[in-house]
Amino acid sequence: MPEYKRQISYPICNLSLLIWIFLSCLFLCPLTLFASDKKSLKVGFFPNVTHAQPIVGLARGDFQKSLGEDVEIKIKLFNAGPSVIEAMFAGDIDLAYVGPSPTINGFIRSNGEALRVVAGATSGGVAFVVRRDVEINSPGDLEGKTLATPQLGNTQDISLRMYLKKAGLRSSDKGGKVRIVPVSNPDILNLFRRKQIDGAWVPEPWAARLVHEVDGRVFLDERDLWPDTGGFASTHVVATPKVLKEHPYLVEKWLRAHVEVTRWINAHPEEAKEIINAELKRITTKGLPEEVLNEAFGRVEFTYEPFAESVEAFANYAHELGFLRKKPDLSNLYSLGLLNKVLAEDGLRPVAKIGD
User: Which of 165, 220, 296, 331 is spaced 20 to 30 A from 287 at the CA atom?
Assistant: First the structure.
């Protein structure tokens, strides 16, 4: 090829390359932007019967159907409440099912900026179980015993410590003679089996498992401690102010499915048990015997009512026990507008917050 032809061929090739790059950006970049625009909702919960709504609703596809296929649901599982709150602080989850005590603690620690209660989930579903071979017939018999809770400062931990205080007893870390060991629920079961603890204050299905698998007996159903409120919040739904501000429609769609799943569970308890058991087996590799699941279900009320009075009581307990430095102001803890909108559209009565 003549020298001049070789010289002009390079700029032509470069020009072609530039045109190709330009056209690629013109047509492919919008597609890339469109693909990256897919929304996600990061949700946390426990593999517990008291967190039945996300277990059932995710398995049945209710939440995905409500949110739409263009929204990705990212799930993170937890063992106890304080871990959930830490994840919310870190921005790892947008919405979670969690007990009142960690919620209150997180709300106070963040000066009310980390989370809002957007719905109730369950009432009850918590019991104080003791070993049958240990003589515990009254609160006084707990002196010198070793008891367990799922985590320091979680809802069951607060309940046990307050119960001891009202009975005139103190935990060993406060100079008393009752040792409290905060360990995970599976570890509680193993410690109970090995007779290294005398009792445990736990949520379902762990209370029923202690009864049926390791010869425990229910010393106290926590519902008996709340005769004036008609129930107490054991789980509610919380969301970050960020997701409420930036994507309120996602929270609303989640709550729509939450209400529908709650009503479905109450109307179809046997089918709900089957789904929960299958999911627990998938998550933890072990399902629950029928008698365990039946007993656990018998102590839980599935609801979207937040039981705000009991949450305020838990806040006062946390303050009294020294987990909170000052008595908390929970006036901004609740954001129930989206839930009440969903309830109104379904012809259901609205729920109330503290002071309503």
Answer: 220
